[in-house]
Design a protein that fits this description.
single chain, globular, alpha/beta, disordered C terminus, 26% helix, 10 strands, 6 helices, Rossmann fold
Length: 266
């Protein structure tokens, strides 16, 4: 994996596939906050079930390994109408994560206003999970927003999570340990985390988006050799990190931005 980091080591970005998070030590992450690639291909229940299964099994095992025992997993999941019916993607993802040892602790909603789309992804679910046996004490915070799609970074082809949503989630979650975004995109989670004084680790498969994130967060590329078969303590400002270099299978593309979709349709 190509690695970028800030001068103080508190912000780190890996350019690689998040199916395997080999550079990250088990139990070292305080919380995971991410918006996985949306389900934009295929139709029908079978295709949607396959997406939820791949998310829970293909990625969820590594999330469970790197997350601290009392850490939170927050997912932003979009829903859509596949031409026949609303899929109910939140229920599918919840079901598959439960089978693999996660328990839903709370949920929220972000409904897009003034959406350019008639069906797709106007309703976004915010889902909070913990490992089985780790219960979150209920709070009075209502996680519900109605707002337009935020403006993406000018060079980004992906839509961004609203910064208000990211900030709220960070403020009501575990404060110890770094924040991990395994689908970093243009680095919105990293930008908000840095503003709140949190350590952040991002993983992004797309080389172009990784460079954009590195530029936004003022990260420098680390050119040291990365030996095979060793895991680094992640992240720590007092340690030198080393990562393994395993080439990984590709992940699904993230939902392209509205601007990009209009270009593709033209």
């Amino acid at each position: 994996m190509t690695r970028y980091e800030s001068r103080d080591g508190r912000l780190r970005l890996f350019r690689g596939d998040s199916h395997r998070l080999d550079p990250i030590t088990s139990g070292s992450i305080g919380m995971i906050l991410t918006s996985p690639p949306y389900w934009v291909r295929g139709q029908g229940r079978v295709s949607a079930e396959r997406y939820a299964h791949d998310l829970a099994v293909g990625f969820g095992r590594e999330w469970k390994r790197v997350l601290a025992p009392d850490g939170d997993l927050w997912l932003m999941i979009g829903d859509r109408h596949d031409g026949t019916e609303w899929v109910g993607m939140d229920a599918l993802v919840i079901g598959w994560l439960r089978r693999t040892g996660w328990r839903l602790q709370s949920r929220g909603f972000w409904a897009q206003t003034r959406s350019r789309e008639r069906w797709d992804n106007r309703v976004n679910y915010l889902l909070r999970f913990r490992k089985a046996g780790q219960v979150v004490r209920p709070r009075g915070t209502t996680l519900c927003w109605m707002m337009p799609l935020p403006r993406s970074h000018p060079d980004s082809i992906w839509d961004a999570i609203p910064e208000l949503v990211v900030q709220t989630v960070l403020e009501c979650s575990r404060k110890r340990g770094p924040v991990l975004d395994p689908f970093a995109g243009a680095g919105t989670v990293g930008r908000v985390a840095a503003g709140l004084g949190r350590e952040w680790v991002g993983v992004e498969r797309d080389p172009r988006m990784a460079r954009i994130t590195a530029r936004r967060l003022r990260l420098r590329r680390v050119r040291e050799a990365v030996p095979d078969g060793r895991r680094a303590a992640m992240p720590s400002t007092a340690r030198t990190e080393r990562a393994s270099t395993r080439r990984m299978a590709g992940s699904r593309p993230r939902r392209p931005s509205a601007r990009r979709r209009r270009t593709l349709d033209a």
